[in-house]
């Protein structure tokens, strides 16, 4: 796609954009002006992109969520058959009696696939969102329409590279914490050990590593957008992100933090009506049940309440998960405009006739 939109890597020697000062305002074919962006431009541009392209964004996110929920639900159902026979042997024991090692191992064996599948689902969901948002921004900055099918093909084709980025950054930033847990948790249960000491070592180690973890996360935060927009592999995308963020770490951190905060606030506001709706359905059921009422009425009210909560979480999570990635994608565009005169290439692509072929 980079040959169609001018989103390939920068070639040295291009002049920097001259918009600003007393010059006319930069052109705006899409959701942002094609010039160096202020924080407000990035945040409002992400809102506008979400509003204009909500159909493909919502479609991809909800589809991946739905597939993940079905897979995890099936795994929980299968595991429940075995857990039911082992749960009592581990937890429902007389006082002072310890469970057999075989029963504990069997219980963990039944639960392990569920945990692994949940982690894999979360990683895939994060990867698909991190892939679809830059693909949407590629069209949004040019003011071009797109479809769910086009975005699905686009993010699916770049998913391996984006997943590689997420795994590499996760291991680099969170690897030391995992090692610390691997050392301290067995130490905590060692016979004769002093429990406060491993807990103190774990907390101190995590606190000391958190600044480095945050620095690495921001430094490589533009790597998914690089992987999608420039077609690079995981390691090359991380190096490219580090160069783009270089000299602007605090600005990238500040705008990204505002994006995550706004996503949390708006997502919570979206969930509130569903929560109130569930409470209005549950309250009459509780009052009607009383002391001698039919418990079926109460169970129905609880089911409606849980369904409303789940629906609200699903709808709210679309914005909570998608908006921060749109902000990071626009930060990627802004850094390239500032450092590589991407605005000129984007303006040329925006005024050129649409090229046939998949986008």
Care to describe what's here?
With 359 residues, this protein is mostly helical. It is 77% helix and 0% strand. It contains 11 helices and no strands. The protein has helices at 2-5, 39-52, 54-91, 101-140, 148-188, 196-219, 223-229, 234-245, 249-289, 295-340, 342-351. The protein starts with a helix and ends in an 8-residue tail after the last helix.
Shape: globular
Secondary structure: number of strands: 0
Largest sheet: none
Averaging pLDDT over every residue, what do you get? 82
Helix content: over 70%
Name the poorly predicted regions. 1-6, 12-21
Class derived from helix and strand content: mainly alpha
What's the number of helices?
Answer: 11
Distance between the termini: 6 Å
Q: Mind telling me the C-alpha Rg?
A: 25 Å
Tell me what portion of residues adopts beta-strand conformation: under 5%
String of helices and strands: HHHHHHHHHHH
């Amino acid at each position: 796609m980079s040959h169609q939109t001018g989103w390939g890597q920068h070639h040295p020697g291009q002049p920097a954009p001259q918009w600003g000062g007393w010059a006319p305002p930069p052109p705006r074919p899409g959701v942002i002006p094609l010039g160096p962006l202020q924080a407000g431009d990035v945040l409002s541009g992400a809102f506008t992109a979400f509003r204009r392209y909500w159909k493909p964004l919502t479609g991809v996110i909800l589809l991946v969520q739905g597939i993940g929920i079905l897979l995890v639900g099936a795994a929980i159902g299968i595991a429940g058959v075995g857990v039911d026979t082992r749960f009592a042997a581990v937890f429902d024991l007389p006082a002072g009696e310890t469970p057999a090692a075989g029963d504990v191992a069997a219980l963990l064996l039944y639960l392990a696939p569920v945990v692994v599948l949940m982690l894999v689902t979360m990683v895939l969901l994060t990867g698909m969102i991190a892939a679809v948002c830059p693909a949407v921004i590629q069209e949004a900055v040019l003011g071009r329409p797109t479809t769910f099918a086009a975005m699905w093909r686009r993010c699916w084709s770049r998913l391996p590279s984006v997943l590689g980025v997420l795994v590499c950054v996760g291991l680099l930033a969170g690897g030391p914490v995992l090692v610390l847990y691997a050392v301290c948790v067995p130490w905590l249960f060692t016979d004769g050990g002093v429990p406060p000491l491993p807990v103190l070592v774990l907390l101190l180690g995590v606190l000391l590593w958190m600044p480095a973890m945050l620095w690495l996360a921001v430094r490589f935060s533009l790597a998914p957008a690089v992987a999608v927009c420039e077609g690079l592999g995981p390691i090359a995308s991380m190096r490219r992100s580090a160069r783009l963020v270089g000299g602007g770490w605090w600005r990238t951190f500040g705008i990204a933090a505002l994006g995550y905060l706004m996503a949390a606030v708006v997502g919570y506001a979206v969930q509130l009506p569903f929560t109130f709706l569930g409470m209005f359905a549950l309250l009459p059921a509780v009052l009607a049940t009383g002391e001698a009422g039919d418990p079926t009425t109460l169970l129905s009210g609880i089911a409606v309440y849980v369904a409303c909560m789940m629906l609200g979480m699903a709808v709210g999570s679309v914005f909570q998960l998608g908006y921060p990635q749109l902000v990071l994608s626009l930060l990627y565009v802004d850094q390239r405009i500032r450092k590589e005169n991407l605005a000129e290439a984007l303006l040329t692509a925006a005024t050129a006739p649409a090229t046939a072929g998949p986008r």
